[in-house]
Design brief:
The complex is a heterodimer of chains A (about 250) and B (about 425). Chain A has ten helices and ten strands. Chain A is α/β, with parallel strands linked by helices and about 250 residues long. Classes of the chains: A alpha/beta (about 250), B alpha/beta (about 425). At the A-B interface, α2 and α3 of A face α7 and α8 of B.
Chain lengths: ~250, ~425
């Protein structure tokens, strides 16, 4: 379960306040969507949860299964079961995708008190997960995300999620840069990972993604606060009417 | 120009000049060889050790580095082990080692692989297989110093395809002495050779070494060469690689630098035949107060040749790394393709990197480029790895490994590539352990 309580955060460099008291609870097994206009703080929220240094938390807590993850370093948050699917997955030249996956998986396993996977076991698991997401063995040999298309990068993110088996996945605009077919593959990948012990926070601009990954709850974020919460029909309402009405009503 | 004439000689310069006079008559070679030596020394007497007012030595002032000179090394006796010499196992199991200790050949000149011949130093001097004159190839003051003092070395010739790698070990004993080794390697037409130079000395010994190697790649020859400089932490290392690349030849050269308190190695390559290719790379890893200078000249003297120059440096603590690279394209060298890239990562606020890539183009139909970057580890890359649960030390190591290993990609021979990866891995592990 993820609990965000009165979260305030600003950009470390210039002090601009972005999050102004976010309150949100995602119970185990649920999918929550966060929608909101440009500049409302959606990506900032995902970065603050995952511990990017560019932001400074000035107030509030983020609890993962009751533990305040704001006191942890980014890699410790991952070990605790948090996963961020990046909006723009970073290209890492020189690091083969396979090497990266293995390093990441074993670091998490070690932190969770499990043995490192043997090479054959690791290869088997990766090949299985990769096949489900249409990721070719050729892609796995290439440097991480280098020269990958937008769709390939996002599929790679979902594959990493499948390997690392997080308790809580934050998906930052996973639909951006995807065509309809890729959206389907990615959504199927996410849906396959849904389960009673895993929750999702899906950040998106558009309702379209939520046709594929159907949320239990939809929140609207505006000017750094959740201004409205509803069920999946809220997303449809937003799609039809835009954000202006809701923001005006909340003000 | 009067500066050189009027200035006061340093103790080291006086030692060099007097040392040469005392040594001269004992050095091998016939009268013309002695003449060559004396001419090189005469120049030295005029110019002295190169210093910062000489453009090429602006960042590595040998006059101030080499204030004093340790005594010349004695020839090692039969039991070199007693002198702290611990000849390492070959990096490649199948390699043939030739070992020099303190500038003297001690083993490996017999039972050479088929296609390889060795010529002893004195014979090589007299036959011209090893040249001291400096007339036939551009050279540096370091090379002149080496030419005057080299007491031993050897020449190798390669015929046909020689699959067995030759490992040339330039080892130092635990004596704080100066030593000078000189080697020539010639690949005849269509020959194929793989050569590793290893420069090794114990930590804590203030030894000074000069090593000059001349490579000649004949028509259609293929040479894979790696020069690993891993001297001890108090050593001074001065190196020179001269390279003549013939028609249709392909030469690959990788410098791996991680040792010595102070090092400078000059690579002087020139294309002497058309349609040849030269790929040179460097992986430089420095920490503490190390000073590491890789200087490169690539002369495109003839048309239709290609070269790539890829240099990667990581610099930690107070260390200082220097890369100077100059590509010259002669007026006749049309259709030259030369691509130089110099990338450096500073791992500490006090680390220093000087990159000086230069292009001098006199032909009009060429494709040449150079670029230099310098920075620290990309925070965005770090965060991506951290967010996946890779701990900071592991993430840093992975990124540095990736950055440096690109320098080793020139080899098709995976065994060579693996040696480079292992050197990078060893340095990074030691660096993580220190910090």
């Amino acid at each position: 379960m993820l609990e965000i309580k009165n979260l305030h955060a600003r950009i470390a460099e210039d002090g601009t306040e972005i999050l102004r008291g976010v309150n949100l609870t995602v119970p185990d097994g649920q999918v929550h969507a966060i929608m909101g206009p440009n500049g409302s703080g959606k990506s900032t929220l995902s970065y603050v949860i995952s511990g990017k240094e560019d932001y400074e938390v000035t107030d509030g807590e983020v609890l993962l299964d009751g533990e305040n993850i704001l006191e942890m370093d980014p890699h410790e948050r991952a070990h605790a079961g948090l996963f961020l699917a990046f909006q723009y997955p970073i290209e890492v030249p020189g690091v083969a995708t396979m090497t990266f996956l293995r390093t990441a998986l074993n670091a998490n396993r070690k932190a969770r008190g499990l043995d490192e996977l043997s090479t054959p076991d690791f290869m088997r698991v990766v090949k299985e997960k990769a096949a489900e997401l249409n990721i070719s063995p050729e892609m796995l040999k290439r440097p991480l995300n280098v020269g990958f298309s937008g769709g390939e990068k996002k599929r790679n993110e979902i594959m990493q999620m499948a390997l690392l088996e997080p308790k809580m996945a934050v998906m930052d605009e996973t639909d951006s840069g995807l065509d309809i077919d890729a959206l389907k593959v990615v959504s199927d990948g996410v849906n396959a990972l849904r389960g009673p012990d895993r929750s999702f926070l899906v950040i998106t601009h558009y309702q379209r993604l939520l046709d594929h990954i159907v949320p239990d709850v939809v929140h609207v974020l505006s000017a750094g606060k959740i201004i409205k919460t509803g069920d999946k029909t809220l997303a449809l309402e937003l799609e039809a009417k835009g954000y202006a009405d809701i923001i005006a009503n909340a003000a | 120009m009067n500066v050189a004439l009027n200035r006061v000689r340093t103790a080291a310069e006086t030692d060099i000049i007097e040392g040469f006079r005392a040594l001269e008559d004992t050095l091998p070679g016939g009268p013309s060889v002695h003449d060559d030596r004396r001419r090189r020394m005469a120049l030295f007497e005029r110019e002295g050790l190169p210093h910062r007012r000489i453009e090429a030595f602006k960042y590595t002032d040998l006059r101030s580095f080499m204030r004093e000179l340790p005594p010349l090394a004695d020839a090692p006796d039969e039991s070199v082990e007693a002198d702290g010499v611990d000849v390492p196992l070959p990096l490649l199991e199948n390699a043939h080692q030739i070992v020099m200790v303190d500038g003297f050949v001690i083993s490996g000149t017999e039972n050479l692989p088929v296609g390889v011949k060795v010529i002893p130093f004195a014979d090589a001097l007299d036959s011209g297989a090893i040249k001291l004159s400096g007339d036939d190839h551009p050279s540096s003051a370091v090379e002149a110093f080496n030419a005057a003092f080299a007491r031993d070395g050897f020449a190798l010739t390669f015929e046909g395809t020689v699959e067995t790698p030759l490992e040339l070990v330039f080892q130092r004993s635990s004596a704080a002495t100066q030593s000078h080794a000189r080697v020539a390697v010639a690949l005849s037409e269509d020959a194929r050779a793989k050569i590793i130079e290893r420069h090794i000395s114990p930590d804590g010994v203030e030894a000074q070494s000069t090593v000059a190697t001349r490579y000649t790649a004949g028509k259609g020859a293929k040479l894979d060469a790696m020069r690993i400089q891993k001297d001890g932490d108090a050593a001074y290392h001065l190196g020179e690689i001269a390279l003549d690349i013939g028609e249709d030849a392909e030469v690959k050269l990788l410098h791996i630098v991680s040792g010595a308190r102070m090092m400078r190695c000059e690579t002087r390559a020139r294309f002497v035949g058309e349609n040849a290719r030269f790929d040179v790379a460097g992986i430089s890893m420095t920490a503490d107060r190390q000073h590491a200078d890789l200087t490169l000249y690539v002369d495109h003297l003839v048309p239709n040749c290609e070269s790539t120059e890829t240099f990667k440096s990581v610099i930690d603590d107070h260390a200082k790394a220097i890369f100077q690279g100059k590509i010259v394209v002669a007026p006749d060298a049309q259709k030259t393709d030369a691509q130089m890239a110099v990338d450096s990562l500073l791992l500490s606020d006090r680390a220093d990197m000087i990159a000086k890539p230069e292009l001098e183009i006199f032909a009009d139909d060429v494709s040449c480029a150079h670029g230099a970057t310098c920075g620290d580890i990309d925070e965005e890359l770090m965060f991506y790895l951290l967010a996946r649960g890779v701990p900071p030390e592991g993430a840093r190591k992975l990124l540095l490994q990736a950055f440096l290993s690109e320098g080793a990609e020139l080899f098709e021979d995976h065994a060579f590539e693996d040696i480079a990866f292992a050197e990078v891995e060893a340095w990074l592990s030691a660096d993580v352990a220190r910090s």
